[in-house]
Specification:
Length: 227
């Protein structure tokens, strides 16, 4: 469940997350744009996951097993991608709406305009951090994905659910942080948030948790088949 050894990617993760912490505490950066970046991190990881699933579909297998009510059927990789985009997209929409509402960042009742205003809300520091996050997650994710042919081994269903555990933890903490922003405690909370985020990213082995969940599901299905 827990990682025992840190990698170069883990040390880079520490640096990437300490940059906004340093900026808010010692350079006078506004905490709100930084929290928006962390909120947008969900979108970055989702887009990367779609690209990974497309690579599996195009390079490895066009179809994979889809579990539905205990029955397994073969579905196109594009079906997995479509389902992920709809399901994950709804999740992102709900999370961002809660964050924007609690943090007081909704500027109108028009949903499209609220999202269109994100670049202006980010400001220079927020845009810088967003670019850093995009670069880090792109390099880190695709290096691990293609290293040792990992993309050839993972199933589409496993890849589809890979981001959820990590993002659930992250977005829960971001939403809690939005409450702190309304009380002017963003500087304090970003310290707590970054430390909590680094802890979960470094010491919780999400891939192992997902593998254990997948194994338990397979065992339940085998027991049902024998019954």
């Amino acid at each position: 469940m827990f990682k025992r050894k840190l990698t170069i990617s883990d040390y880079l993760l520490i640096v990437v997350n300490l940059i906004p912490l340093y900026g808010v505490w010692f350079e006078g950066w506004d905490a709100k744009p930084i929290f928006i970046v962390y909120c947008m991190e969900t979108v970055i990881i989702g887009i990367i996951n779609v690209i990974k699933m497309a690579c599996i579909t195009l390079l490895v297998r066009k179809k994979d097993g889809w579990e539905n009510g205990g029955a397994t059927s073969m579905q196109s990789g594009w079906f997995f991608i479509f389902f992920f985009v709809i399901h994950y997209g709804f999740f992102v929409f709900v999370q961002t709406q809660i964050f924007f509402g609690v943090a007081g960042l909704k500027q109108s009742g028009d949903l499209i305009m609220n999202y269109a205003n994100i670049p202006a809300l980010l400001g220079d520091h927020g845009k810088l951090m967003l670019l850093i996050f995009i670069a880090y997650y792109s390099v880190q994710s695709f290096f691990e994905f293609f290293k040792d042919g990992a993309y050839k081994k993972i199933s589409l269903s496993r890849q589809m659910f890979e981001p959820y555990i990590r993002i659930f933890v992250q977005q829960f903490v971001v939403i809690v942080g939005s409450f702190c922003l309304t009380f002017g405690a963003g500087k304090i909370f970003i310290l707590v948030f970054v430390l909590v985020k680094i802890f979960f990213e470094l010491f919780v082995n999400y891939n192992r948790l997902l593998a254990l969940a997948e194994k338990k599901q397979q065992m339940r299905e085998e027991r049902k088949a024998k019954a």
